[in-house]
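Worked example

This section walks through a single chain of length 81. The input is the sequence exactly as stored; nothing has been trimmed or padded.
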Amino acid sequence: MDAKELEIRAILHKLSGGNKRKREDTSNPLVRYCKALFIPHFHSKTKPDIPFDKIQNNVYNVEGNPPHKMLQLHEDYFEFI
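Given that input, the structure is written out below as tokens.
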């Protein structure tokens, strides 16, 4: 690569935020449990029974399940924050 290509890549990297989306570790039992619990409800557009303590709107406490502390539910996906 020449210097111009490297400069363009650096600019694009800055514009993209520089961080790749982190995929959850599927060997973690909490991640597997949440997938099994929520994904069928996302597909059927139903409301799941959530076994975690609610912190605020759509944010739940999953502390005690390292390395995750909070779970956030969205309309069609969930993420650990």
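What to look for: The helical segments are 3-15, 29-44.
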